[in-house]
Amino acid sequence: MSLNESTVEDAALSWFAELGYELGHGPHIAPSEPAAERESFNEVVLEGRLREAIHRLNSGIPKEAREEALRRVLRVGTPSLTQTNRAFHRLLRDGVPVEYPRPDGSIAGDDVRLVNFDDAHANDWLAVNQFTVIEGQQTRRPDIVIFSMVFRWA
């Protein structure tokens, strides 16, 4: 058996499948495909899956506040990639702070959670190979990208 990039990629995908990850193929979920999960190649977040995860994990928070949290996650950006990664990590770790009106007119504050850290098995893990991202004139295609969305709240 020859050891090449494809062999290593296939072995890694098999390993993720054994761990219970859903497997996806980047070209199948790419823009303009029947199973597309993003509108353009510059999108790196599977927005529909994230929206559903936010809803299921934070069902007690009003829809408008959950949508605001989604918008904030999608707009995380700073002048430096390192700062952006740190800002996103804070949101991932601590939740997205939101405010919304209560029925009595007062304002409530809450954190919209993005991941279930209490039960890792309650998260939906997705391993996608050949996930193309285009930013400006740069095209990148990592062998495997891992997504985690909370679909099952235990």
Helix and strand element order? HEHHHEEEEEE
The overall pLDDT, averaged over residues, is: 90
What fraction, in percent, of the residue positions are helical? Answer: 25-40%
Structural class computed from helices and strand pairing = alpha+beta
Q: What is this entry, summarized?
A:
This protein has 154 residues and is of the alpha+beta class.
Key words describing this protein structure:
33% helix; 154 residues; single chain; alpha+beta; 3-stranded mixed sheet; two-stranded antiparallel sheet
Can you tell me about this structure?
The chain is of the alpha+beta class and 154 residues long. It has one domain (5-150). The protein has four helices and seven strands. The strands form three sheets. A three-stranded mixed β-sheet has the order 1-4-7, sandwiched between helices. A two-stranded antiparallel sheet has the order 2-3. Helix 2 (47-57) packs across helix 3. The longest helix is centred in the N-terminal third of the chain and has 14 residues, at 5-18. The protein is globular. It starts with a helix and ends with a strand. Mean pLDDT is 90; it is low at 150-154.
What's the arrangement of secondary structure elements?
Elements: H1 5-18, E1 22-25, H2 47-57, H3 63-74, H4 81-94, E2 96-101, E3 107-112, E4 123-129, E5 133-135, E6 138-140, E7 144-150
Parallel strand pairs: 1-4
Antiparallel strand pairs: 2-3, 4-7, 5-6
Helix pairs in contact: 2-3
